[in-house]
Structure formats: C-alpha cells, structure tokens
C-alpha cells in the first residue's frame, strides 16, 4: 500500500509542478495585456521593428527574372512540348502548317474517350466500376462541359507522371540517405504541403508568365510530396527477409532496388499515385487563375459574376472527373496489391491487354469518323442539357422563403461567436503567444521543439503579419473545433455500429474526392460572402479526418484487451469509455491534427469569398503579382500549420508512450 501510494505521489508531483508553471505563465500574459498602455510593444509588434522580408524576397525574384530568364524560357519550351501535345490531343486540334495551307487534325473523339473510360473501368474493376467511370465521362459530355474538362485532364495527364517520377527518385534518395531525409527532404515536404496553394502561383506567374506551363509547374510542386512519402514508407516496410534473399541471390544494389524492393513496395506506391492524382486535380482547378483554363476557370468566372447555376454545373463536372480518376486509381492500386498471373508464357500484346487494344482501336476509329461526321468530333448541342436555370430557381426559392431564417442565423453567429472570438485573438499579445507556445513545446518534447515553435510564431510578428495571422488562427480554430465536435461523435458511432459505418463511409469518401472549390459554391448561394461562408465550407471540407481516424482508432483496439475487460466484469459502456476510448485517443488526436491542417488549407481558398486574413493577403499579392508579399504570407500560413502539426504530433507520441 505504501509503495503504491508513493508511486502515485511521484507521478502526480510533475503534473502539479506543470500546473503551477502554466498558472504563472497565464497570469504573466494577463498582466502584460492589462498593462498594454505601458508595454505596447509586447501586445502589438512595433511597426518600426518590422523586418522587410517581403522586400528582400521581391528583390530576389526580380534578380532571378532578369538574370535567369534564359533558364525559365528553356524550362517553358521543354515542358511546353508534351503539354501542347496533350492539350491538342484532348481539348484542341492539331494544326500543321500556317495560313491557308494549314491542315487540321482533330482531337480525340468524345465518343472514343467515353468508351475508353468505360473499358478502363472494366479492366481494373469490373462492370460496376466501368459504369461509374464511363458514366462520369458521359455526364461531363452531356452537360456541355467536355472541352473544359479535357483541358483539365490534359494538364493532369502531363503533371501526374512528372510528379510520380520526381517523387519516386526523391523518395529513393531519402530512403537511402537518412541524413538527407532528416535535414532536407522532410522539411521541404512539410513546407510544400503547408504553404497554401495560392502562394505557389505567385512565383510561377512571375517567372513563367500567365500560361498552362506555369499552372503545370505549380501543380507538380504541390502534388509531388505524397509520392515521396509513399516511396519512403513503401521501401521501409519491405520485409527484411526479401532484402536478405535478394543479396543471397547475388543481386547488385541497382538490381535489388528495381527488381526486388520497388516491386515489393508497389501497393504502397500505388496509394501514393492515387494521392498525387487527387492533389493534382485540386491544384489544377486553383491554377486556372494563372492560365490553366478548364473547369476551374469556369467556376471562377461564374463565381465572380454570381452565376450560381453555371458555377454549380462546372463544379459538378469537377466532382465527376474527381470521382472517376479516384476510383480508377484506387482500383489499379488494389489490383496491383493482389497481383495477377498471365495465362500464356509469351502472349501477344492484344491478348495480354485486350481492353487497352480495344480502347486504342475505338479511339482511332471514332477520331477518324470525326473528320466526316461532326457528331463524333464534338458533342452535338442537341443532346446536351443544362441545369443552370434549375439551380438558379432553387437558390431564388430558398432565398425568398428562408431569407429571414438564414440571415438571422448568420447575424447571430457573427455577433455572438465570430466577432468576440476574432477580437480576442487579434488582441492577444504577440509576446505572450510566443511564450505560451514555446512553453507547450518544451513540456511536450523539450528545448528543441520549444525553440522551433517560438521561432516560427515570432516570424509571423516580425514580418508585420501578426493581426492577419491571428485572424487566420481564429477562423481556422473555430472551424476545426466545430468539425471535431461533429466528426468525432460520428466516428464513435460508426465504430460501434457496422450498419452506421456502411452509411457514413460513402459520404466521407465523396467529401474526400470533392475539390475544395466545390465546397464554396453551395454555401455562397445561401450565406453570401464573409466569415460565416468560409467557416461552413471549411467545416464540410475538414470533417472527414475527424470521422475516419476516430472510427479507425476505436476499431484498432486489440480484441484481447476488450475480452479482458469483459472478463473483469466491465459493462459495454465501461469497456468503451475506460478501455477503447483511452487506447484510441492518440489515433483520434492524429485525426484532430489532420482536421486542423485541412481547415487551414481551406481557409486560404476561402479568401475568394471575402475573409480578411493571411489568405486575403496571398490573394491580393497574386492579383498584383507581388511575389514578396505573397510568399511571406504563404510562409506565415505554413508556419501556423507546422506549429500545430508539431505540437499535436508530440502530444500524440507522449500519449502513445504513456499507454504503451
């Protein structure tokens, strides 16, 4: 008894010390806030002490543009060749010659592309997938979005292979050189994944101009990290027995890598390919602002003109393309994981790949028919539909009948929740925030994390962006908090009921493949522009990880522990709250971490609908081609994400260690 009591006292003593430290720290911050008349520099960062990082970055970009223009022109010329070919093949026509003597070769027939999509789905997933994929492409054609969708698909078809090859080699290098992974690759990936998408566009616009090549390069930078991470993870998970066997068989290092390790890691690599495709699609939509064209540009124009119907139709076409590409790439990954056996030892090409052969034949025949039959070359207007008037009528009906209710809800939310929270965040002393976050880092992981967190937080202040930073934190924080309040209970219910999980899974799968643009459109229809619109769209976008990780965490609790709890006499409720939930808590917190990062990414895109934060700063910089202003604001956003990620990761690691 005495030993047990002394052990519990020893464990509680550090907790009591940290409670006292935190109480003292919060009291000190409160004193600074109350004495802001005497200590104004500790509350609001002095304008005279702002470090002109934005000016330095702008000067550097101007120097690069003037002195390395030959390099950017060369890159544009090289990348422009395959990109122009893809654009001509799918969306435009090939022009051979000049003037009146020019010959025009048609693009691929829409009938052939739809048939090829149907055959691709059938080849990797059977009848159901073929109907889904083929149906998505047919939907795009019949609703008059074919040319725009093919522009988007052409960019993806060039950007994705570039991302896969680049990510594969970078991942192999990082796997072989742990120092490179620790010092170069991981920090670079963190920045690439947390810097907002708009911030990629500004240097691309300045260096490569307003062109599809700029959009493709920005897309490649944004979509490459999942492939790098998947390569490192896949190679590290290859069983050591396979590695040893390849060495015993006399393989060289190169043979072992390409013939043994990479084929063994193929399932994980295909998951990375799927993520690359989805991120590339998301980024191509956003890159429409700098010359990509396509569906994203249609959505952007419609939103600017407040044409709800046209925006919704283009948005649904994006959804259809996203679902088709996602399901197709997932099915290919699943098939690669299962493996397959050829029927013959050396079969001919058409016997090994009958669906591919048939698809190529159909594409050739239908494209040639397009020279003589216009209906094969372009989608006839007579068979296309439009739902734009219906969407407009629906929005008008909702506005007329529910305007008072919606407006009352919006105003109440702004006055009672958003405005007070915004005022609190914007008035919070910058020095206090740096100190408290540094203290949290020190408690969770020691001095190294404390210095990193404090330095990244201080960057937002010393660059003169503290008020905008806190506006971003307020909106991201409240959105992520509400997303967790909604998502975690849904995840808990899904974990306890297989029937409920079957209902929830298709919904969150659909939400996950929707590009971020598509969350804004319906909310703008009802709530107009402003913080409420941004918050609701962000909650819808960021709720998926909270649901998925909670469900996964509860279901991953070892059955032996649950049986032990039942044997000990625990009721189902006690088993859930005292065994399953505590053990799943680290996994749930990982979901909270991902929810915060997704909320941060969406908040930046919501700058298009009138938010006044760092996203607006990046958006203004993009419109003015001010590279320094946009990149510094993008770095501030990235540092918010890195601080949140590092603190939550450290907390999760500590919780896992405590729970064994």
From TrEMBL:
Ligase recorded as keyword: no
Domain ABC transmembrane type-1 as annotated: residue spans: 149-329, 469-648
TM regions (residue ranges): 15-35, 42-64, 70-91, 103-123, 129-146, 153-175, 195-223, 269-291, 311-328, 356-379, 449-466, 472-495, 507-526, 588-610, 630-648
Subcellular location: Cell membrane
Top-level taxon of the source organism: Bacteria
SUPFAM superfamilies attached to this UniProt entry: MetI-like
Keyword Cytoplasm carried by entry: no
Cited InterPro entries: MetI-like, MetI-like_sf
Record keywords, A-Z: Cell membrane, Membrane, Transmembrane, Transmembrane helix, Transport
Membrane topology (UniProt): Multi-pass membrane protein
Family statement: Belongs to the binding-protein-dependent transport system permease family.
Identification of the protein by name: ABC transporter permease
Naturally occurring in which organism (per UniProt): Mesorhizobium cantuariense
Lineage, broadest ranks: Bacteria, Pseudomonadati, Pseudomonadota, Alphaproteobacteria, Hyphomicrobiales
């Amino acid at each position: 008894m005495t030993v047990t009591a002394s052990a519990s006292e020893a464990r509680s003593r550090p907790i009591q010390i940290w409670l006292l430290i935190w109480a003292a720290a919060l009291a000190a911050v409160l004193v600074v806030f109350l004495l802001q008349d005497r200590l104004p520099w500790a509350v609001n960062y002095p304008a005279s002490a702002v470090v002109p990082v934005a000016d330095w970055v702008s000067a550097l970009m101007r120097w690069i543009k003037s002195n390395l223009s030959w390099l950017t022109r060369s890159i544009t010329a090289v990348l422009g060749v395959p990109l122009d070919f893809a654009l001509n093949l799918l969306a435009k026509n090939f022009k051979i010659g000049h003037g009146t003597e020019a010959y025009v070769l048609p693009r691929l027939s829409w009938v052939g592309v739809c048939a090829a999509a149907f055959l691709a789905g059938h080849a990797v997933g059977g009848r159901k997938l073929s109907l889904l994929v083929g149906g998505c492409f047919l939907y795009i054609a019949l609703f008059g979005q074919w040319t725009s969708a093919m522009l988007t698909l052409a960019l993806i078809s060039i950007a994705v292979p570039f991302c896969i090859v680049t990510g594969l080699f970078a991942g192999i290098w990082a796997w072989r050189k742990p120092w490179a992974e620790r010092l170069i690759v991981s920090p670079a990936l963190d920045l690439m994944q947390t810097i907002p998408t708009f911030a990629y566009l500004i240097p691309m616009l300045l260096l490569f101009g307003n062109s599809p090549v700029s959009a493709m390069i920005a897309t490649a930078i944004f979509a490459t990290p999942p492939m790098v991470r998947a390569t490192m993870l896949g190679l590290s998970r290859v069983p050591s027995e396979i590695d040893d066997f390849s060495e015993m068989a006399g393989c060289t290092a190169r043979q072992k890598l390409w013939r043994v390790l990479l084929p063994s890691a193929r399932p994980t690599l295909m998951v990375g390919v799927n993520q690359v495709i989805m991120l590339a699609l998301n980024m191509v939509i956003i890159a429409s602002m700098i010359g990509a064209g396509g569906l994203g540009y249609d959505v952007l124009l419609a939103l600017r003109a407040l044409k709800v119907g046209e925006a919704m139709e283009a948005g649904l076409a994006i959804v259809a393309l996203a679902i088709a590409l996602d399901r197709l790439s997932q099915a290919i990954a699943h098939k690669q994981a299962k493996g397959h056996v050829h029927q013959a030892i050396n079969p001919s090409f058409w016997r090994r790949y009958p669906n591919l052969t048939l698809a190529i034949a159909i594409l050739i025949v239908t494209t040639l028919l397009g020279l003589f039959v216009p209906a094969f070359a372009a989608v006839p207007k007579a068979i296309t539909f439009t739902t734009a008037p219906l969407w407009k009528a629906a929005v008008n009906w909702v506005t007329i009948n529910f305007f008072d209710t919606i407006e009352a809800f919006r105003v109440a939310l702004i006055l009672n929740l958003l405005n007070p929270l915004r005022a609190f965040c914007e008035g919070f002393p910058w020095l206090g925030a740096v100190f408290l976050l540094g203290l949290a880092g020190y408690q969770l992981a020691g001095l190294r994390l404390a210095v990193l967190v404090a330095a990244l937080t201080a960057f937002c202040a010393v660059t003169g962006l503290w008020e905008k930073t806190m506006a971003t934190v307020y909106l991201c924080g409240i959105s992520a908090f509400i997303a967790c309040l909604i998502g975690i209970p849904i995840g808990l219910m899904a974990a306890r009921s297989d029937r409920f999980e079957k209902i929830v899974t298709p919904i969150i799968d659909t939400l996950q493949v929707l590009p971020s643009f598509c969350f804004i459109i319906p909310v703008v229809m009802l709530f107009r522009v402003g913080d409420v619109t941004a918050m609701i769209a962000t909650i819808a976008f960021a709720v998926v990880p909270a649901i998925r990780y909670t469900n996964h965490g509860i279901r991953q609790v070892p059955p032996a522990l649950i049986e032990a709890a039942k044997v000990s006499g625990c009721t189902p409720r006690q088993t859930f709250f005292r065994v399953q939930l505590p053990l799943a808590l680290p996994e749930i917190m990982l979901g909270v971490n991902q929810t915060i990062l997704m909320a941060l990414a969406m908040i930046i895109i919501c700058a298009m609908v009138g938010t006044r934060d760092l996203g607006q700063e990046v958006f203004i910089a993009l419109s003015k081609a001010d590279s320094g202003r946009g990149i510094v604001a993008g770095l501030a956003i990235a540092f918010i994400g890195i601080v949140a990620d590092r603190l939550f990761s450290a907390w999760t690691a500590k919780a896992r260690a405590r729970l064994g």
